Amino acid sequence: MAAIYSLYIINKSGGLIFYKDYGSSGRMDTNDSLRVASLWHSMHAISQQLSPISGCFGIELLQADTFDLHCFQSLTGYISLLFFFLSKKVTRMIQGTKFFVVCEPGTQHMEGLLKHIYELYTDYVLKNPFYEMEMPIRCELFDINLTQAIQKDRVALLAR
Amino acid sequence: MIGVGKIKQYSNVLDKPLSKGKQEVSLSAFAFLFSELVQYNQTQVDNIAELERRLEDAGYAVGARVLELLCHRDKGNRRETRLLGILSFVHSTVWKVLFGKVADSLEKGTEHEDEYMISEKELLVNRFISIPKDMGTFNCGAFVAGIVRGVLDGAGFPAVVTAHFVPVEGQQRPRTTILIKFAEEVLRREARLG
């Protein structure tokens, strides 16, 4: 049984730039995956605002009955949005590139995997001269290395 | 303070021996710089052949300088005059200085007498680069091909040098082959020298 169901990468304006399915139940409809991505983007932004403590960067883990959702926001490349009301600053939001995996409930060590995926993204996507920022990721090397990383994670999971 | 006693004081800066300098640069820094080089050149051209030519020209300037430097540093101001000599110079000395390792293989072309190939499983400049499908056989190794051409040209071995992807059986990624086709005069001279 696959521990990871799917992986999403969304850019800072909420567009889905990468989506991959690892579950056995077949691929999700393209429109649905886009919807999930933008829904998560908005929820993540709202959570920043609703947080009782200041300096919140959004949801990192969402636990449900049938799945866990782990989210990682990139450390750089933020856009900072300021909202004004009657020329007074009312709120500030931070939006970066977000990586999130949907996995089996209780799956461990997802933060490590997400960090590793972020590393692969910085190496094989951002250093590729043919990749345009904020556009869908179509890089062969990224795919190859990602598959390896997920496989390694699965093997490690079985050994545990 | 540790080590202070060991440093000999020179009154004149010209008496100081030249340090060899740091031998390595950050791979990430290089990858970003190279990526920008490719992106900049992409904005200046309207077809892939021209992009390849521009990258090769950029490499040519590097090659010409590398030859000067290495002849001075490693060979005591002498340079190779024979075909196989210069080829092994490129394959080992130049590669080692530029990429930190000797090239994977140096072969003679089977079909033509004037063709030689330097193959590399994973060329350093291609480490992070995926070529989009619509660009066909384009290879950023054109830059390295340019370096090789610069070295050969500077040493008096004019040649046409191109970079190609060659699929390898059982491997997901193709290897890069730098194909060197020497000019006729080089082979004639080589034959005369015996």
Automatic annotation (TrEMBL), chain B:
Gene Ontology CC: endoplasmic reticulum; TRAPPI protein complex; TRAPPII protein complex; TRAPPIII protein complex
GO biological process, one term: endoplasmic reticulum to Golgi vesicle-mediated transport
Places the protein is found: Endoplasmic reticulum; Golgi apparatus, cis-Golgi network
InterPro entries: NO_sig/Golgi_transp_ligand-bd, TRAPP-I_su5, TRAPP_component
Top-level taxonomic group: Eukaryota
Keyword Endoplasmic reticulum: yes
Chief place where the protein resides: endoplasmic reticulum
UniProt-listed CDD domains: TRAPPC5_Trs31
Keywords: Endoplasmic reticulum, ER-Golgi transport, Golgi apparatus, Transport
Family as reported in the entry's similarity comment: Belongs to the TRAPP small subunits family. BET3 subfamily.
Record text on subunit structure and interactions: Part of the multisubunit TRAPP (transport protein particle) complex.
PANTHER family linked: 41-2 PROTEIN ANTIGEN-RELATED (PTHR20902), TRAFFICKING PROTEIN PARTICLE COMPLEX SUBUNIT 5 (PTHR20902:SF0)
Protein name as catalogued: Trafficking protein particle complex subunit
Organism: Prunus avium (Cherry)
GN (gene name): LOC110756947
